[in-house]
Design a protein that fits this description.
The structure is a homodimer of 500-residue chains. Chain A is an all-alpha fold and 500 residues long. Chain A has 21 helices and three strands. The radius of gyration of chain A is 23 Å and the shape is globular.
Chain lengths: 500, 500
């Protein structure tokens, strides 16, 4: 059996190597590739994708996994090898459920849909995108039908991002969360608004970049195993356990883009860099799920980077870098400014208090569409109604409403919820970390992040994809994903800032 | 047959796509990859290499080529399809001659040898490298033995870089060239030396970079289809017909590195970008051989970039960029300085007049070693003897002598000659271009390069790998590779500069 396990690991290592080559193609496409290289890049991605699909669904792989199943069950269920056999068997089963012709059709349909979405958004005309989205919804429903024993069609979609998570779980979490978030925002709206005008000034781009580098170097980002570049949309891309890169963008007239974008991506990268070396090239390196990944990025961005202790350490340094802009802005005013709550139309610009409402809106619509209870043609109206209900705003046009996000155009139904779940998990972990490291605030106030990073490594990062997200959160915090800690966190923070 | 041809093209396109993905891995390794990513990068390259080797030697490919042979012979022999079938059949025959075990062993031996070469050069101790080089020579001789009907073992090695070129051809060319080059250098040495001290001053790095960009933009480098980055050793890498990138290095205290390095790599890139779109993704895009490639890079670097008309256009601009360094240096003094002839120990620093002697020295040694007429242990002495004979210098140590170049450590026997052949071809083409474009000097003097680039595209670039180098040179100039034009070029140039 040892020999069969070694065979399995050899096959998986080659699939990982290929996926890492593909990851570099993607990274380059968004950072340095000259424009005219796009068509060839598509061909390069396609051939790698085809080989990976072939290898990941190869009958010999299935045979090996079948043979290894009893062996895996005989091991400590939390051991690397037991988990490797179990998780890989699930991956294999899922991959082989979907016919190759479907994969090809889906790639073609979404490729066209993405182009139509760009045009539709530019012209703010949903009708351009509508037929493409209808086809995508049809294919997503068909996709769900390939998996036997799935209770709700949305479960199949969710599982691609949050292994093991059910539609009912997500609904329950968000039902508990929604009234509390709406109430919080109402309470804030009744209070005088804080000033953040000083964040909207000219800030030298190189100086911004350098400050961001200083911060994430203190976080523990290892420049020997990563790098930072610029891109239109910040992202993190691992092309090896020892090569996890981030990008950021710098707005010359607004400090927040670089500041919180850099910390956010660093959070993702620290997770990717923290997998156990024993998991390297097995397919189990990386993260448990999108939500757990987002819990890490949001933790460094918000629970650390938008906290008072953090700025007690870093604000004097930031004032030193930007004296003419910030010399007359007090620490307290700065802290309030970066935590300003302001309902807005655009998800990616939302603050911590309103962000989850943007997600809930999308989630409800997604589920209804996949269930067949909402027609694609009625999406703009459904969007605008909820936007008014949750955030008190109505988009002036579809570009600022239903067309604002790219996700549906690539078929990413199920993706949005992970952003909100990530917020919840970040606060849930944070409560536990503060129990385990009572001096955490003092350490942050001193610019020391070793214990925090060490805790995350030991409890989260090292496990890679070994555990499903609910399993992992339960194991670490004692309960499954729970909205209460996040609401406690928001309540406490905004009570102080807005005097609720 | 049309259908079989289409099948062939589909298979070749996928091999090209993979090779382009591999090219990006290589480019990234030398530009942006964080240091700790190296080991994983090796695995990624290995798996792509293995798939490409499998596909390039697949029996179905051989069967298709056999079936297509009569069809190919029925077509116009210079047509794209006829050449595609012919060249691919040769590639296939060569690839299938070499056993896979040999390919694996060779990769392992050279990987270790490269590490030992680095150490040997650092310590200037040939004995560290000697056993590795002995093994490599043994494997190179074995490699040659795999090809039936090869007259001279060195022919097999040469063919990998210069398809169709024979050891006897190269020997004949260099035998004719050597006495003339030695004589020229002696004549120059008897004249007063020119001054180039003004090139060795501090020059702002960004200003250097910008000037280089200005020059190659005028050459016609298309930034939509390429880009320039920094690397320790400048190189050109195509990852698609529409994505051919260059790198350069900038020495803050010496103008030549950036200046001529940038033009050199641009020459390679223009060649890569000029293949006929009809050859895209066939394996016939790119260049005819290393020597023809080098003819392009050396032409833009030397025949254009070190010419008086070029600087009649660009020197006022360069003086504007670096007034404190160059305001008091006349055009004539500058032109002489960048063309200074000075025998030196290191090939990559050699001037146009002495460069080829560095190559001849290596070529003679390589042939003798592969023939078995020179033992690896005797290489340092053989090197130093020739260095004294040709250039009047003796290296102080092996690092400055036999250990200076990396090529043998990766088994690149046959590679060096292409540098010198490239010089010869560049001058041979230049004579023909000047016949076809009599106003070329005036155009260069006006900063106009469209006609030159147009000529190169039509006569050289567009053909990609369709023709073997000797065939191509014959077709364009009316004779095979010939050292006479290069000697006429050097003679004329240095007569003016040194008053011979």
């Amino acid at each position: 059996m040892e020999e069969k396990l070694a065979q399995l690991k050899t096959k998986l290592a080659e699939i990982v190597d290929l996926s890492q080559a593909a990851a570099l193609l993607g990274w380059d496409q968004q950072t340095y590739m000259p424009p005219a290289g796009a068509e060839a890049r598509g061909n390069q991605q396609a051939v790698l994708g085809r080989i990976m699909q072939e290898w990941a669904t190869a009958p010999e792989l299935g045979k090996l996994l079948d043979e290894l199943k009893p062996y895996g069950e005989s091991l400590d269920p939390n051991s690397d090898d037991a988990r490797l056999i179990k998780v890989t068997a699930k991956d294999y089963a899922k991959a082989t459920c979907v016919p190759t012709e479907f994969v090809v059709e889906f790639a073609q349909v979404t490729s066209l849909a993405q182009q139509s979405w760009v045009e539709a958004r530019q012209k703010s005309d949903f009708s351009i995108f509508q037929p493409h989205l209808e086809k995508i919804v049809e294919l997503r429903r068909k996709y769900a039908s390939f998996f036997p024993g799935v209770e709700h069609p949305y479960d199949a979609l969710l599982d691609d991002f949050e292994p093991g998570m059910k539609t009912e779980d997500v609904k329950a979490i968000f039902s508990a969360l929604r009234p509390q978030q709406v109430e919080l925002i109402k309470a804030i709206a009744e209070k005088p608004q804080v000033d953040d005008s000083f964040l909207h000034q000219p800030f030298d781009e190189q100086a911004q970049w350098d400050f961001g580098v200083e911060v994430i170097t203190k976080f523990g980002y290892d420049w020997n195993r990563g790098r930072q570049d610029k891109s239109a949309h910040p992202f993190t891309q691992g092309m090896a356990l020892n090569d996890v890169r981030i990008t950021t963008r710098v707005d010359p007239n607004f400090l927040n883009s670089m500041l919180f974008g850099t910390m956010h991506e660093c959070g993702h990268a620290l997770y990717g860099l923290g997998s156990s070396p024993a998991l390297d090239r097995t397919g189990l390196e990386g993260g448990a799920s999108m939500a757990v990944h987002e819990s890490q990025s949001r933790m460094w961005e918000n629970l650390v980077g938008r906290s008072l202790p953090f700025w007690q350490h870093f604000y004097p340094r930031l004032q030193e870098v930007f004296p003419s802009q910030l010399a007359n802005v007090s620490l307290n005013a700065f802290y309030k400014g970066i935590n300003k709550v302001q309902p807005s139309l655009i998800r990616v610009e939302a603050d911590e208090a309103t962000y989850n409402l943007h997600i809930m809106l999308r989630l409800e619509i997604e589920i209804a569409v996949i269930e067949g209870n909402l027609a694609v043609k009625d999406l703009p109206e459904a969007w605008n109604t909820r936007m008014q209900e949750y955030l008190g705003l109505t988009p002036a046009n579809d570009a600022q409403g239903v067309l604002q996000d790219i996700h549906w155009s690539f078929g990413g139904f199920g993706y949005f919820s992970t952003y909100a779940l990530g917020n919840l998990v970040s606060a849930q972990l944070w409560e536990k970390i503060n129990q385990d490291i009572p001096a955490l605030d003092d350490q942050i106030r001193a610019g020391q992040f070793e214990n925090l990073l060490g805790w995350l490594r030991t409890n989260i990062h090292v496990h890679g994809r070994k555990f499903e997200p609910q399993e992992l959160v339960q194991q670490v915090t004692g309960s499954k994903i729970d909205p209460a800690p996040y609401m406690r966190y928001l309540g406490k923070k905004y009570s102080e800032i807005y005097g609720l």
